[in-house]
Amino acid sequence: MEELKRCHNKEENAKCSVNAMDLWKILQNVVHTEQQVRTLREYLGLYMKVIRPDDNIRDYFSGSRGDGFCFKWSDIDILKSLITDYVPMIPFGWNDIDTDIVRSLLSDLQPQSKYVAIDNGCQPGYCKLICMARRKLADGKYQYLHRPSFLNERRRLSYNSNPDKHIHGPCVSTVHGSGLDNCYAFPIYPKFSNEFLKRFFTKFWNNVKLKVIRKSITVMHCVPKGPEYGDEEGLQWLISFSVLEQYIVHSLNHVQFCCYGLMKILLHSEIDSCSETKDTLSSYHLKTVLFHVLEDVHSDFWVPQNIFNCIRICLTRLLWYVIKGCCPNYFYPECNLLKKRKIVEKRNELGKKLFEVLKFDIEDFFFSVLFSCSHIPNIFNAYCTFSDLNCRKEMKHILFELELNVYPNTGFSLHALSLAMCTAKGYQTTYRRCIHSILMILNFLQAEKDQMKIAFLEYLFLSLIRRIGIILYDKFILTGFKYYLLSAEAAFMLFMNASAFAGAYLATLWYCRGKYVRCIELYEDMGNRYELIYSHPTLKNTCIESTCDFITLLRDIEFETMELYRANNLVPKDLQYDVQSCAHSEFLMQIHLYFLFLVVMCCFETNQIDAGIYFVGYFQKFFKTKEFHLLDNVTQQNSKRLMQIAIEKIGVLNSYCN
User: Fold this and answer.
1) At what angle are helices 254-266 and 283-296 packed, to 10 degrees?
2) How does the average pLDDT of the chain come out, rounded?
3) 206-209 long-range CB contacts below 8 Å, 24 or more apart?
4) Which residues pair with 399 in a beta bridge?
5) CA 380/CA 398 separation, integer angstroms
6) How far apart are CA 402 and CA 396, in angstroms?
7) How many CA atoms lie within 13 A of 265 on its CB side?
8) Helices (H), 217-374
9) What does the pLDDT look like over 97-111, one tens digit per residue?
């Protein structure tokens, strides 16, 4: 193995050099293959059909998830389109909405719109929303919808949300996991957006343009985000093309998509990792740069062999925009996207940083991508860094021996299913919506033939059942009504089908209700099931060889963590302080370790010192053998906290008995 890690001569060094196709291969592992991305989008589309809030709102995955990326550092962005409040947009130049021409434009829009968008007196790319019920005040001025008031009202009315909800830009946000941003927006009537698109000239997405116009798809929204300067009253709203941009991104070839993904990786690893340039550029700047470049560079150039040149062209264009201090909005070129205060203040530092990145050779890009993938450095040394040349050399040689096969060969669809499961959590919903979604799932399952989609729908079903159990237990704590407790117990019993240790939720309920013996018996039953499936060689091989059984194994992997929520009451008394004071809305732990923690707590409550000492020892042994990814620090630290509490409790019991 040592010979694989070192090059002793120039010929071997030349053999191990990185070329464009090597960069392309590693991008397939980090950004994922074209088929995986397509399948991921399909699963998330199915998820949105199932988890619908109500008939008044349509949800879209926006941002990185909506485009088809699944980076661990990205937020989950949801665009909530208020489909009962479509907005007509008055053509530029009409100052009075009472003129005959404007009235004729509005006459066939039924039901009568609450608001009308008008861009007179606004900065490019922005508009104001006139309240039609109170069109004019006594002084003849229009009554406009106040943006901050709208956001505050949305935050106040958002039910079943985490207690840390706050306004972040145009979104009502929470730190849920890595972040969840809900952006409420008014859709613009397709009749008006189609007129805009007919006048817009493009070279590379005319097929998307024709589809949107022909099907009258809603692609434009009024978003509660104002310009950086000149809107002290808070009346201007951003005209957003995020849905249209998603259609365009989905139409890109895979080299163009991977180039966009590589820019996102560089933004995260090089720009945002530097304190001087953090929170300057955003993914929207990168997307805008890519769109401008695609208008100028012929589609035949975007092939895997040119991936290095493609990224350099995009970075050069971005650097040029930063140097001159102007990045034109793709749809409104007169709107400058570099007016953000921090960009203006840090423009010189940002330009220097981009120039450094632009000097990267192909090997630098290769390792920048490599270090963005949390599981790869873990193969080598948890403390190695991007700038550690010896570590990079070691990683390069071993990866070439492995032929860059970083992910196991589990099939494109299966891996995309796993990525979709990471996003589709199933607990950001109310009881009523859970029942509605379950009925939708049962309806889809009757007609679905694809085994992967069936597995995904079953996963969503079980996630919703878990959510129902948590909601009903909260209702029991609030009312004391016993049937709520029995219903929660039944829901968690059904959820036990999710994975080997999914009974941890039922065990938590029993522990909270003082049923300690039943909790221990449940763990023993779950442990026997775990050993039966994964320790027996024949059954283990069967799981690997059989697609259906492998999906069951995958479900065990996806349900391997346990979440306790600050906003809910299903929390053991010894963890209440930790859960309430955790940085995130959820206290995340490895599910087997959490189950062991409950068993130790039950031993403490029933004075079973010998059993408690045994399980603490098993806990410590299992914790040491458990592998945590580099980005799973929260899960690891929380699981370690469980072990500390368990040791303290058994220590107290031991001293008491002695």
Assistant:
1) 140
2) 80
3) 207/251, 208/244, 208/247, 208/248, 208/251
4) none
5) 9
6) 10
7) 24
8) 242-251, 254-266, 283-296, 307-324, 341-345, 347-358, 362-372
9) 555 555 565 565 545
Return the ∠ at Cα 373 (arms to 370 and 375), rounded to 5°: 110
Contacts of 195 (CB under 8 A, 6+ apart): 91
Residue entry with tokens 């109310």:
430
Q: Residue 8 corresponds to which amino acid?
A: H
What is the Cα–Cα distance from 334 to 625, expressed in whole angstroms? 58
End-to-end CA, the chain: 53
Position 536 confidence tier, pLDDT thresholds 50, 70, 90:
very low
Q: Tell me, what amino acid is at 107?
A: S
Phi-psi region of 26 (alpha: psi -120 to 50; beta: other; left: phi over 0): alpha
Reported as a single tens digit per residue, the pLDDT across 391-445 is 555 555 545 544 444 444 444 555 566 666 655 554 457 788 888 889 999 999 9
Residues 379/383/387/391 CA torsion (nearest 10 deg)? -40
Report how far residue 615's alpha carbon sits from residue 609's, in angstroms, rounded to the nearest whole number. Answer: 10
Closest to 530 (Cα-Cα) out of 492, 495, 556: 556
Paired tokens of 441: 């799932």
Q: What is the pLDDT of residues 171-189, one digit of tens each?
A: 887 765 556 788 999 999 9
**Mean pLDDT of all residues in 310-336:** 96
Token reading at 575: 């963890």
CA distance 466 to 473: 11
Whole-prediction pTM: 0.81
In the block, tokens 């024709």 appear at 210
Tell me whether residue 645 is exposed, middle or buried, using C-beta atoms within 10 angstroms of its C-beta: 0 to 12, 13 to 18, 19 or more. middle
Whether residue 650 contacts residue 612, with contact meaning beta carbons closer than 8 Å, is answered with yes
Helix, coil or strand: residue 200: coil
Q: Which of 219, 199, 221 is nearest to 208 (CA)?
A: 219
Tell me the per-residue pLDDT of 605-656, one tens digit each, with 9 for 90 and over. Answer: 998 888 888 888 888 887 777 655 434 567 788 888 998 998 988 888 777 7
In which band, very low, low, confident or very high, does the pLDDT at 550 lie, cut at 50, 70 and 90? Answer: very low
Q: Is 534 helix (H, G, I), strand (E, B) or coil?
A: helix
Q: Which string of DSSP letters, residue by residue, matches 323-334?
A: HHT--B-SS-TT
Label the pairing between strands 115-118 and 89-90. Answer: parallel
- In terms of DSSP bridges, do strands 76-82 and 180-187 run parallel, antiparallel, or are they unpaired? parallel
Q: Which value, to the nearest 10 degrees, does the dihedral of the CA atoms of residues 439, 440, 444, 445 take?
A: -30
Query: What phi and psi values does residue 565 have, to the nearest 5 degrees?
Result: -110, 140
Residues whose CB is less than 8 angstroms from the CB of residue 163 and which lie 6 or more positions away in sequence, other chains included: 566, 567, 585
**Which two three-digit tokens encode residue 450?**
């694809």
- Take residue 128 and report the two structure tokens written for it: 């104001």
User: Do 127 and 186 form a contact (C-beta atoms < 8 A)?
Assistant: no
- Angle at the Cα of 403 from the Cα atoms of 402 and 407, rounded to 5 degrees: 75
Task: Say if residues 170 and 186 touch (Cβ distance below 8 Å).
Answer: no
Could you tell me where the DSSP H helices lie in 61-136?
63-67, 100-106
* Maximum Cα interatomic distance, the chain, rounded to a whole number of Å: 93
Percent of all residues in the chain with a pLDDT value above 70, rounded to a whole number = 75
Determine the 3-state secondary structure of 133 from DSSP.
coil
Among the listed residues 377, 347, 184, 198, the one whose alpha carbon sits nearest the alpha carbon of residue 277: 347
